[in-house]
Amino acid sequence: MAKTNASRRDFIKLLGAASATMIQPDAAWPVAGWAKSDALHFTADPFSLGVASGDPWPDGVVLWTRLAPDPLVGGGMPERDVPVKWEVASDERMQSVVARGTATASPRRGHAVHVEVGGLLPARWYWYRFTVDAGSSPVGRTRTAPALSARNDRMNLAFASCQHFETGYFTAYRHLAAEDLDLVLHLGDYIYENGPADGRLRRHNTPEVKTLADYRNRYALYKSDPLLKQAHASFPWAAVWDDHEVDNNYAGLISEDNVPRAEFAGRRAAAYQAYYEHLPLRRSVLRGGGVEIYRRLDFGSLSAVYLLDTRQYRTDQPCGDGNKPVCPEALSPKATILGDRQERWLLGQLGQSRARWNVMAQQVMMAQVDSLAGPGQQLSMDKWNGYLVERKRLLESLRAHGPSNPVVLTGDIHSNWVADLKPDFESETSPVVATEFVGTSITTGGDGSDVRPTTAAVLSENPHVKFFNGQRGYVRCSLTPERWQTDYRVIASVTQPDAPVNTIASFIVENSRPGARRA
Ligand SMILES: [Fe+2]
């Protein structure tokens, strides 16, 4: 693949400056959104899905766009490679251009463009745009990571998850875009795969998605949202998928409806490809013949972020999934949520890390939550609760190897939680080894409510759980060498695109003192 790209680049170089403006049309072009003429000609905006950047490193970042003049029905592009010029500037008016080049938008990748820009300065804001003959994209803003040796004393990030298009407006992203952030983490459910449901605010564009073409159209629907586009254009993002990017509650190659593995493997591969095509990921995630998204990002001496994948390599949810008493399967040493390879990688990384804050950004809640009041237990088997031996091994390893300040960030459950993490949640004397912040959904579940009828019982049943809130929004985190602060930013209503945001609770973790306390 790399070879093909290189030769394509050489070809574009040979064409020289004319390549972006004098592309010869192919007589066989299909073509919504296209007119046949001597030059490549768009009759609709090819940058309808906006721009994005992500996975920053000290001298660069991934820039993303996807050419899609007819976004909801296949994109509207011809079956051929199209060169796309890109520029990076040190000013928002794009006058001081510091890097530029030409990338290839290929039909093999849905005409998505991923540019890995290098040679930039660390910890700087940059602006970027793409250009085809029809014109330029909107200008996006991004930021490089601090130098690895930097003694950086501040980092601001936000994390978000679960943006069901039908159940609300992406109001939260309007407010997120106005924050002062170095990075946005997206922890999954970037799309939902379901068909349309009646009586909702907005509507999915196709029945349940299963093919590459369907997934592309679904991403296009979500990415057509102006507030999501605004949030992408404002900061670099680092994203990991959860289940709905493929199929609700799948585990490895086991689908929600238990279709044959070979059949589901094809669907999953299509879903993973579409995810890659629509997010600003590095090419290095294309490995092992598929897409592997677990990875580490470094932000100077202050933090290392481990992005995890708790879907692709896990064994089936034990005890028949759902909310259940613990059955032998959940206690099996063979049950895994990370898979052997990812677990070894994570433990190895954590063991060697010199970062002040070690941030595990992942999908499903790690803390135990017993939802049965009184004697007996009921645990949600889709979460780390279903993989008890592995959870204990990870939490014991945090205690034994002591990576500085482990913090777990989580999505999935459409609610805000704060929890202390302990190797043994049943034991009052088991030490707190890490802190978990679970962030609510952008929209999924509708407006929600601060408390639920069960909240008081859940909090008293699980003393390591410090906070619950069931509204929509995102989570903002401010890091310094001495202190981590988490602010739960909630919006009153997802049916109003201009609803205000407010901070409903703030928590602090002090350096070297795992566990959260109210700010
Ligand atoms: Fe979700």
- Overall mean pLDDT score? 92
Output the structural class: alpha+beta
What general outline do the C-alpha atoms trace? globular
List unreliable stretches of 5+ residues. 1-38
Bound molecules: fe (ii) ion
The share of residues in extended strands comes to: 25-35%
Biggest sheet features: 17 strands, mixed
Account of the 3D structure:
49% of the residues are buried. With 519 residues, the protein is an alpha+beta fold. The chain has eight helices and 24 strands. Helix 2 runs parallel beside helix 4 and helix 3 (212-223) runs parallel beside helix 5 (261-278). The site of fe (ii) ion has 7 residues, from loops. The site of fe (ii) ion (FE2) has 7 residues, from loops.
Quick description:
The protein is α+β, with helices and mostly antiparallel strands. It has helices at 2-15, 171-177, 212-223, 226-234, 261-278, 340-352, 388-401, 455-461; strands spanning 51-57, 60-66, 82-89, 97-105, 112-117, 125-132, 135-136, 140-143, 155-160, 183-186, 236-239, 295-299, 303-307, 323-324, 357-361, 379-380, 406-410, 416-421, 434-438, 448-449, 465-479, 483-491, 501-510, 513-518. The chain contains eight helices and 24 strands.
Topology (SSEs and partners):
Blueprint: H1 2-15, E1 51-57, E2 60-66, E3 82-89, E4 97-105, E5 112-117, E6 125-132, E7 135-136, E8 140-143, E9 155-160, H2 171-177, E10 183-186, H3 212-223, H4 226-234, E11 236-239, H5 261-278, E12 295-299, E13 303-307, E14 323-324, H6 340-352, E15 357-361, E16 379-380, H7 388-401, E17 406-410, E18 416-421, E19 434-438, E20 448-449, H8 455-461, E21 465-479, E22 483-491, E23 501-510, E24 513-518
Parallel strand pairs: 1-11, 9-10, 10-11, 13-15, 15-17, 17-19
Antiparallel strand pairs: 1-2, 2-5, 3-4, 3-6, 6-7, 6-8, 9-21, 12-13, 14-16, 18-19, 18-21, 20-21, 21-22, 22-23, 23-24
